[in-house]
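Title: Comparing notes on inverse folding

I've been comparing how different people in this forum approach sequence design from structure. To keep things fair, I'm posting one structure and asking everyone to reply with a full sequence. Here's the target:
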């Protein structure tokens, strides 16, 4: 685990350096080549370090046994990437270059809390797998899952709000030319609350062998998301349509995953709404508090007070009320 963590850190550093360097020289082909070089270097390092322990060998029976689960994991990863990046993919066809760049910054900033949520999942995932592997019962991971869910539901809304306020502040100070991205950023963050909370149930479903359930929830989310995009792009204009559509899709994804995990535990359908509210209430509270703080200071902003100063005041009020 320690070795893999060090290698992963080195891979990320090498990839970043190579992508920035080669992309500046050769644009997109350079970025792709840099990623491939970094991946190849990491693979060669592992082969060299464990050359006497790990010998690549093709074993057809083993391949046949692990292919179904491996392919479902690959497919679920692909669908997940599509769900969280569909807004930018659609944006390439409905937005101009300038607006796409502005929206891209907002979308990039909005993804920051999702990384923290993935970290919580990555910490708990090995234990989920170990406990389920011993007993092969979903109930074996329920105590740990419940504690992890309580921590995530409590801390992640606070983290998302922090990222929102800090992101606004940094854009105002460091990237004033991209201030137009802030309204898009604000809308997207409403959905990021629920996308962040989707990480833990997704990890639990995969660890307990419920890959098919996870894939079905992703497929349903994607189908509903396409419908949402189609409706909003005909009723709203430009990047705002993408923001609202993405936020709604993230909420749907989180709600469906939590509902499916509660169902596996054996919770009654009549209690699912109550269970979902217990998970989502801190996020709803944080969203309402952020909106109230911004509405309260809206008049000061229009009166000419510095945008950065207003954001500092927003943070102070948010933390005081929280």
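Reply #1:
Here's my take.
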């Amino acid at each position: 685990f320690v070795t893999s963590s060090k290698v992963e850190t080195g891979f990320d550093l090498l990839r970043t350096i190579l992508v920035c360097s080669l992309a500046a020289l050769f644009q997109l082909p350079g970025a792709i080549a840099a990623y491939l070089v970094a991946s190849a270097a990491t693979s060669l390092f592992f082969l060299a370090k464990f050359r006497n322990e790990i010998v690549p060998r093709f074993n057809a029976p083993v391949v046949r046994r692990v292919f179904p689960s491996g392919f479902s994991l690959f497919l679920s990863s692909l669908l997940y990437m599509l769900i969280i990046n569909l807004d930018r993919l659609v944006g390439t066809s409905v937005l101009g270059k300038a607006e796409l760049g502005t929206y891209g910054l907002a979308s990039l900033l909005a993804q920051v809390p999702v990384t923290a949520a993935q970290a919580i999942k990555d910490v708990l995932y090995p234990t989920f797998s170990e406990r389920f592997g011993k007993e092969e019962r979903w109930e074996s991971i329920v105590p740990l899952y419940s504690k992890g869910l309580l921590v995530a539901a409590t801390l992640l809304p606070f983290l998302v709000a922090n990222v929102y306020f800090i992101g606004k502040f940094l854009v105002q100070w460091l990237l004033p030319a991209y201030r137009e991205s802030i309204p898009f950023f604000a809308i997207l963050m409403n959905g990021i609350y629920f996308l962040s909370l989707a990480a833990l149930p997704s990890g639990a479903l995969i660890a307990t062998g419920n890959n098919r359930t996870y894939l079905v929830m992703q497929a349903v989310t994607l189908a509903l998301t396409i419908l949402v995009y189609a409706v909003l792009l005909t009723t709203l204009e430009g990047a705002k349509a993408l923001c609202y559509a993405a936020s709604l899709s993230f909420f749907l994804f989180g709600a469906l995953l939590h509902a499916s995990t509660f169902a596996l535990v054996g919770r009654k359908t009549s209690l699912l709404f109550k269970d979902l509210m217990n998970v989502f209430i801190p996020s709803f509270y944080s969203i309402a508090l952020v909106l109230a703080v911004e509405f309260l200071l809206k008049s000061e902003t229009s009166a000419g007070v510095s945008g950065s100063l207003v954001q500092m005041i927003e943070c102070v009020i948010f933390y005081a009320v929280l």
